[in-house]
Amino acid sequence: MSALVTVENLTRVFDVSKPWLNRVIEGHPKLFLTAVDDVSFSIPKGKTFALVGESGSGKSTIAKMIVGLVRPTSGRIAFDGTDMAGIGTDAASRRLRSRFQMIFQDPYASLNPRMRVGDIIAEPLRTFGLETDRAAVSARVSELLRLVKLDPRDSVKFPHEFSGGQRQRIAIARALAGRPEFIVCDEPTSALDVSVQAQILNLMRDLQEEFGLTYLFISHNLAVVRHMASEVGVLYLGRLVETAPTRQLFAAPSHPYTRMLLESVPDIGMTGRARMPPSGEIPNPINPPAGCHYHPRCPLVREECRRQRPPVVTVGADRVMCFAAGEPR
Amino acid sequence: MTDSPLPRKPGLGERWAAFWDSDIAWSFRHSPLAIIAALVVAIIFVAAIFGPWFAPQNPFDPSSLNLMDGKTPPMTPNAFTGTRFLFGTDDQGRDVFSTILYGSRVSILVGFAAVALAMGIGVTLGLIAGYRGGWVESFIMRVADIQLTFPSILVALMIFGIFKGFFPAGSQNDLAVPVLIIAIGLSDWPQYARTVRGVTMVERSKDYVSAARIIGQHPARIMARHVLPNVLGPVLVIATLGLALAIIAEATLSYLGVGVPPTQPSLGTLIKIGQEYVASGEWWILLFPSLTLLALALSVNILGDWLRDALNPRLR
Fold this sequence. Notes:
The structure holds 2 protein chains of 2 kinds.
Chain A: E1 3-15, H1 20-26, E2 32-44, E3 48-52, H2 59-66, E4 74-79, E5 82-83, H3 91-97, E6 100-103, H4 117-127, H5 134-147, H6 164-177, E7 182-186, H7 194-211, E8 214-219, H8 222-228, E9 231-236, E10 239-245, H9 246-251, H10 256-263, H11 303-307, E11 312-315, E12 318-321
Helix pairs in contact in A: 4-5, 4-6, 5-6, 6-7
Chain B: H1 12-21, H2 23-29, H3 32-54, H4 96-132, H5 134-148, H6 152-166, H7 172-204, H8 207-214, H9 219-255, H10 267-278, H11 284-311
Helix pairs in contact in B: 2-11, 3-4, 3-11, 4-5, 4-7, 4-9, 4-10, 4-11, 5-7, 6-7, 7-9, 8-9, 9-10, 9-11, 10-11
């Protein structure tokens, strides 16, 4: 199956130094934060690739780089074979932009409070020049609202008249307006009530089936990822430590960090059973541990982990960044 | 699914009903002070705008003046002609009430135009500074900071002086009002720029701006269509308070003799003229223009204060 989105050796370094004058007077050196460190993956057409990780692991930075909100420091992002570097606001860029979209975490911040729902959804239509006359725009907006199970009459309302779940539906309708092939979903349900989360997730799956959409799904909720993804990438301090098909990752995780994450998920079958508690905390990303970033927390730590970055090893369909990968335990 | 009728934007009646139910309208209806201030402002505005239609005389048309009417106290018959004047007359027989009607026009015109100019410059620069960041922001905000270290009346005086130097003496009276507007407008923009920059920085980090960037909207369009409507609340408050300040600034400049010429007086010019007579007992020439200015500036200020509180979500 051909890959729709390919990410190769993607790296993003943020300059988090104090202002120049403070550095000179207080004698501090420049500080850099490597938010994303040499990440590679590809997403086949029609599939869902999930990125999981703790806060600060670089999930959202990867999402922002893919949609062009943040420029990569190095590495390459290709969309259907086209390099995304230097995407701007010209006509050719817009044609490329119309093929991908993003759904954001907080539906209270992702809809302009001063715009009517109809105008919010119509904005991509007008920007991409897909519909020009008023009646056609209005008809398409109604169609999109129905698609996300809202009433077409809602288009004259303002976002504050809706609940969180309804707002996320509006955001999905806006994302679908330009008929994209690929949607980046940055924790689309983590700001919603649990009762609404499943509705939104099922809606997203239905839409994926209907339009053959490809998703990059970002989440810290493993249950949600298991429900949505066909393949999962686990991030730890900006590095992709394990990439595996969902079923395999949940059944037989290879990386010690993935194992710890899965251990920490509560489930009914585990009641009364002793479990390994998560140990340690995520280190300061400005000054991460040498070698394998996970070594201070790792139960399998050995000498080379402290010195060298582990290589990416392929174990079956599983790609793991660990010295102990593939060894029997 | 059945086809529902195409959605339609609400009509005027529905919009008015929605406005009447809004927090702002509710807050207004429950603030007696704001209602009184709005009434005073409305009366002065209407009087100023329609003044020439009902003023007893045109005080700046020499043919309508009678020197014998000079220095008549308010509401008393003139010793020679027997005419009564509501607010009295000045030394040339000008009806003070009429001069106030004509003078408020100039004051209000200068006030509004100066606020519009300051707002235009300040909002534009503030949006650019807040949205672009980096050295553009540093440059704009440092210029604003430097200008803020000078009292704005001093800046206005300086700008006024520079403009006067560029024009021949003969054209100065005709250009006095536009130059005054530019002087006051240019001296007031940093306030708007600072506020707008702050709000813009908050708004630009929100995801609705990201959504617009993803589809490749031009930054200018994002600023105008997405950010601007969301920064207008605080701008409205500063503009209202700024209107009172601009009217006072105009009066101050005119009082200092650098504003509008006596042939086309504003409230400030009237106060300046009146001041020359107060020592000789003709108090009304000074008192009534001063009271008008006070009522106007105070009421606009009260409205601005009310608006600030009404728009502040933390005080609701």
